[in-house]
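Q: What would this chain look like folded?
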Amino acid sequence: MEGFVKKEVQNSIGIITFYHPKGNSLPGYLLNELENAVVELSSEENAKVILLKSEGEGAFCAGASFDELVSLKNFDSAKEFFSGFGKVINAIRKSTKFVVCRVQGKIVGGGLGLVSSCDYVVAVRTASARLSEFSIAIGPFVISRAVERKIGKSAFMQMTIDTEWYDAEWCCSKGLFNRLFETIEEMDAFLDKFLQTLAKRSSKTQTELKRLFWEGTEDWDQLLEKKAEITATLALDKTAQDVIKSLIQKR
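A: My prediction, written as C-alpha coordinates:
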Protein backbone atom coordinates (compact mmCIF):
# COMPACT_ATOMS: atom_id res chain seq x y z
CA MET A 1 0.00 0.00 0.00
CA GLU A 2 1.24 3.46 -0.88
CA GLY A 3 1.10 6.35 1.53
CA PHE A 4 0.75 6.59 5.29
CA VAL A 5 -0.94 8.30 8.22
CA LYS A 6 1.33 9.16 11.14
CA LYS A 7 0.24 10.38 14.56
CA GLU A 8 2.43 11.67 17.36
CA VAL A 9 2.37 13.97 20.38
CA GLN A 10 4.97 16.72 20.68
CA ASN A 11 4.91 19.32 23.46
CA SER A 12 1.21 18.70 24.15
CA ILE A 13 0.31 18.94 20.45
CA GLY A 14 -1.25 15.92 18.77
CA ILE A 15 0.01 15.85 15.18
CA ILE A 16 -1.61 13.89 12.35
CA THR A 17 0.32 13.75 9.08
CA PHE A 18 -0.92 11.99 5.96
CA TYR A 19 0.81 11.29 2.69
CA HIS A 20 0.16 9.65 -0.66
CA PRO A 21 2.50 9.89 -3.68
CA LYS A 22 -0.38 10.89 -5.96
CA GLY A 23 -0.99 14.40 -4.71
CA ASN A 24 -1.83 13.28 -1.17
CA SER A 25 -5.01 11.70 -2.51
CA LEU A 26 -6.94 9.46 -0.14
CA PRO A 27 -7.76 5.82 -0.84
CA GLY A 28 -10.07 4.01 1.57
CA TYR A 29 -7.39 2.57 3.85
CA LEU A 30 -5.87 6.01 4.46
CA LEU A 31 -9.28 7.45 5.27
CA ASN A 32 -9.75 4.70 7.85
CA GLU A 33 -6.35 5.46 9.35
CA LEU A 34 -7.13 9.18 9.45
CA GLU A 35 -10.38 8.54 11.29
CA ASN A 36 -8.60 6.30 13.81
CA ALA A 37 -5.84 8.85 14.34
CA VAL A 38 -8.33 11.62 15.13
CA VAL A 39 -10.28 9.39 17.53
CA GLU A 40 -7.15 8.19 19.31
CA LEU A 41 -5.61 11.64 19.74
CA SER A 42 -8.96 12.99 20.91
CA SER A 43 -8.74 10.62 23.89
CA GLU A 44 -5.01 11.15 24.47
CA GLU A 45 -4.57 13.13 27.70
CA ASN A 46 -1.16 14.47 26.71
CA ALA A 47 -2.54 15.98 23.49
CA LYS A 48 -4.27 19.28 24.28
CA VAL A 49 -4.94 20.32 20.68
CA ILE A 50 -4.67 18.53 17.31
CA LEU A 51 -2.86 19.61 14.14
CA LEU A 52 -3.86 18.05 10.81
CA LYS A 53 -1.39 18.35 7.96
CA SER A 54 -0.09 16.55 4.90
CA GLU A 55 3.46 15.71 3.86
CA GLY A 56 5.52 17.67 1.36
CA GLU A 57 5.25 21.07 -0.27
CA GLY A 58 2.87 20.06 -3.07
CA ALA A 59 -0.87 19.55 -2.82
CA PHE A 60 -2.50 19.44 0.59
CA CYS A 61 -4.97 16.83 -0.65
CA ALA A 62 -6.10 15.77 -4.12
CA GLY A 63 -9.29 14.25 -2.74
CA ALA A 64 -10.53 10.76 -3.53
CA SER A 65 -8.18 8.27 -5.15
CA PHE A 66 -9.07 8.02 -8.85
CA ASP A 67 -7.51 4.56 -8.99
CA GLU A 68 -9.90 3.39 -6.30
CA LEU A 69 -12.87 5.20 -7.85
CA VAL A 70 -12.45 3.38 -11.12
CA SER A 71 -12.03 0.03 -9.36
CA LEU A 72 -15.37 0.22 -7.51
CA LYS A 73 -17.47 -2.77 -8.57
CA ASN A 74 -20.63 -2.70 -6.46
CA PHE A 75 -22.79 -0.46 -4.32
CA ASP A 76 -21.50 -1.75 -0.97
CA SER A 77 -17.84 -1.14 -1.79
CA ALA A 78 -18.64 2.29 -3.25
CA LYS A 79 -20.67 3.28 -0.20
CA GLU A 80 -17.90 2.11 2.12
CA PHE A 81 -15.33 4.17 0.22
CA PHE A 82 -17.31 7.40 0.20
CA SER A 83 -18.36 6.86 3.82
CA GLY A 84 -14.67 7.14 4.66
CA PHE A 85 -14.72 10.89 4.10
CA GLY A 86 -17.84 11.21 6.24
CA LYS A 87 -16.24 9.22 9.05
CA VAL A 88 -13.19 11.48 9.14
CA ILE A 89 -15.39 14.58 9.12
CA ASN A 90 -17.49 13.17 11.96
CA ALA A 91 -14.40 12.21 13.96
CA ILE A 92 -13.15 15.80 13.75
CA ARG A 93 -16.63 17.14 14.53
CA LYS A 94 -16.98 14.95 17.63
CA SER A 95 -13.47 15.53 18.94
CA THR A 96 -13.41 17.41 22.25
CA LYS A 97 -10.25 19.19 21.09
CA PHE A 98 -9.69 21.92 18.55
CA VAL A 99 -8.41 20.57 15.24
CA VAL A 100 -6.17 23.06 13.46
CA CYS A 101 -5.41 22.46 9.78
CA ARG A 102 -2.20 23.41 7.96
CA VAL A 103 -2.69 23.92 4.21
CA GLN A 104 0.52 24.13 2.20
CA GLY A 105 -0.94 23.56 -1.27
CA LYS A 106 -3.94 22.83 -3.44
CA ILE A 107 -7.12 21.22 -2.13
CA VAL A 108 -9.43 19.19 -4.35
CA GLY A 109 -12.78 17.49 -3.78
CA GLY A 110 -12.90 15.43 -0.61
CA GLY A 111 -9.87 17.26 0.72
CA LEU A 112 -12.06 20.34 0.97
CA GLY A 113 -14.34 18.39 3.30
CA LEU A 114 -11.44 17.65 5.62
CA VAL A 115 -10.34 21.30 5.69
CA SER A 116 -13.91 22.51 6.22
CA SER A 117 -14.41 20.22 9.20
CA CYS A 118 -11.41 21.65 11.05
CA ASP A 119 -11.91 24.37 13.66
CA TYR A 120 -9.15 26.70 12.48
CA VAL A 121 -7.26 26.72 9.18
CA VAL A 122 -4.01 28.38 8.14
CA ALA A 123 -2.75 28.41 4.56
CA VAL A 124 -0.13 29.85 2.25
CA ARG A 125 -1.19 32.35 -0.39
CA THR A 126 -0.33 29.93 -3.17
CA ALA A 127 -2.96 27.47 -1.92
CA SER A 128 -6.18 27.14 -3.91
CA ALA A 129 -9.28 24.98 -3.77
CA ARG A 130 -11.54 23.21 -6.23
CA LEU A 131 -14.72 21.15 -5.93
CA SER A 132 -14.25 18.95 -8.96
CA GLU A 133 -16.94 16.32 -8.35
CA PHE A 134 -19.55 17.66 -10.77
CA SER A 135 -16.97 17.64 -13.54
CA ILE A 136 -16.60 13.86 -13.17
CA ALA A 137 -20.37 13.24 -13.07
CA ILE A 138 -20.69 12.88 -9.31
CA GLY A 139 -21.23 15.57 -6.69
CA PRO A 140 -19.78 16.70 -3.34
CA PHE A 141 -22.63 15.13 -1.38
CA VAL A 142 -20.70 13.62 1.55
CA ILE A 143 -18.69 16.77 2.22
CA SER A 144 -21.53 19.17 1.36
CA ARG A 145 -22.67 19.92 4.91
CA ALA A 146 -19.15 20.56 6.17
CA VAL A 147 -18.24 22.84 3.26
CA GLU A 148 -21.55 24.70 3.27
CA ARG A 149 -21.34 25.18 7.04
CA LYS A 150 -17.90 26.72 6.61
CA ILE A 151 -18.30 28.98 3.56
CA GLY A 152 -22.08 29.44 3.25
CA LYS A 153 -24.62 28.07 0.79
CA SER A 154 -24.05 30.62 -1.99
CA ALA A 155 -20.28 30.06 -2.10
CA PHE A 156 -20.79 26.29 -1.88
CA MET A 157 -23.20 26.41 -4.82
CA GLN A 158 -20.70 28.49 -6.80
CA MET A 159 -17.84 26.06 -6.20
CA THR A 160 -20.04 23.06 -6.99
CA ILE A 161 -21.41 24.43 -10.28
CA ASP A 162 -18.32 26.29 -11.49
CA THR A 163 -15.68 23.64 -10.89
CA GLU A 164 -12.67 25.88 -11.53
CA TRP A 165 -9.93 26.82 -9.05
CA TYR A 166 -10.54 29.40 -6.32
CA ASP A 167 -7.48 31.20 -4.98
CA ALA A 168 -6.45 31.61 -1.35
CA GLU A 169 -7.79 35.16 -1.10
CA TRP A 170 -11.24 34.00 -2.19
CA CYS A 171 -11.09 31.06 0.22
CA CYS A 172 -10.10 33.36 3.07
CA SER A 173 -12.87 35.83 2.25
CA LYS A 174 -15.43 33.01 2.50
CA GLY A 175 -14.07 31.68 5.80
CA LEU A 176 -12.47 28.48 4.55
CA PHE A 177 -9.05 29.81 5.60
CA ASN A 178 -8.59 31.86 8.77
CA ARG A 179 -5.06 33.15 8.16
CA LEU A 180 -2.84 33.44 5.09
CA PHE A 181 0.96 33.46 4.94
CA GLU A 182 3.44 34.29 2.22
CA THR A 183 5.61 31.24 2.82
CA ILE A 184 5.45 27.82 4.47
CA GLU A 185 8.19 28.95 6.86
CA GLU A 186 6.10 31.91 8.05
CA MET A 187 3.05 29.67 8.44
CA ASP A 188 4.96 27.11 10.50
CA ALA A 189 6.48 29.80 12.71
CA PHE A 190 2.99 31.07 13.47
CA LEU A 191 1.71 27.56 14.13
CA ASP A 192 4.47 26.82 16.63
CA LYS A 193 3.38 29.74 18.82
CA PHE A 194 -0.35 29.46 18.16
CA LEU A 195 -0.62 25.77 19.02
CA GLN A 196 1.35 26.22 22.21
CA THR A 197 -0.98 29.05 23.20
CA LEU A 198 -4.02 26.84 22.64
CA ALA A 199 -2.42 23.93 24.52
CA LYS A 200 -2.01 26.09 27.62
CA ARG A 201 -5.66 27.13 27.74
CA SER A 202 -8.46 25.34 29.59
CA SER A 203 -9.25 21.89 28.19
CA LYS A 204 -12.72 21.97 29.74
CA THR A 205 -13.51 25.29 28.10
CA GLN A 206 -12.18 23.98 24.80
CA THR A 207 -14.56 21.00 25.05
CA GLU A 208 -17.53 23.26 25.71
CA LEU A 209 -16.55 25.53 22.82
CA LYS A 210 -16.41 22.54 20.48
CA ARG A 211 -19.97 21.69 21.51
CA LEU A 212 -20.98 25.29 20.87
CA PHE A 213 -19.32 25.41 17.45
CA TRP A 214 -20.98 22.19 16.30
CA GLU A 215 -24.50 22.71 17.68
CA GLY A 216 -27.14 21.45 15.29
CA THR A 217 -24.98 18.76 13.68
CA GLU A 218 -26.01 15.89 15.94
CA ASP A 219 -27.63 14.02 13.04
CA TRP A 220 -24.51 13.99 10.86
CA ASP A 221 -23.64 10.32 11.46
CA GLN A 222 -26.83 9.21 9.73
CA LEU A 223 -26.92 12.14 7.30
CA LEU A 224 -23.44 11.61 5.88
CA GLU A 225 -24.12 7.89 5.47
CA LYS A 226 -27.12 8.74 3.29
CA LYS A 227 -25.00 11.19 1.29
CA ALA A 228 -22.46 8.40 0.74
CA GLU A 229 -25.23 6.23 -0.71
CA ILE A 230 -26.14 8.96 -3.22
CA THR A 231 -22.50 9.39 -4.23
CA ALA A 232 -21.97 5.63 -4.51
CA THR A 233 -24.88 5.31 -6.93
CA LEU A 234 -23.57 8.13 -9.13
CA ALA A 235 -19.97 6.90 -9.05
CA LEU A 236 -20.99 3.47 -10.34
CA ASP A 237 -22.89 4.95 -13.26
CA LYS A 238 -21.24 4.46 -16.65
CA THR A 239 -21.01 8.21 -17.25
CA ALA A 240 -18.85 8.78 -14.17
CA GLN A 241 -16.75 5.67 -14.77
CA ASP A 242 -15.99 6.70 -18.36
CA VAL A 243 -14.95 10.22 -17.31
CA ILE A 244 -12.70 8.92 -14.53
CA LYS A 245 -11.07 6.34 -16.83
CA SER A 246 -10.34 9.00 -19.44
CA LEU A 247 -8.72 11.25 -16.82
CA ILE A 248 -6.54 8.40 -15.56
CA GLN A 249 -5.39 7.68 -19.13
CA LYS A 250 -4.31 11.33 -19.55
CA ARG A 251 -2.10 11.31 -16.47
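The first strand starts at residue 4 and ends at 10.
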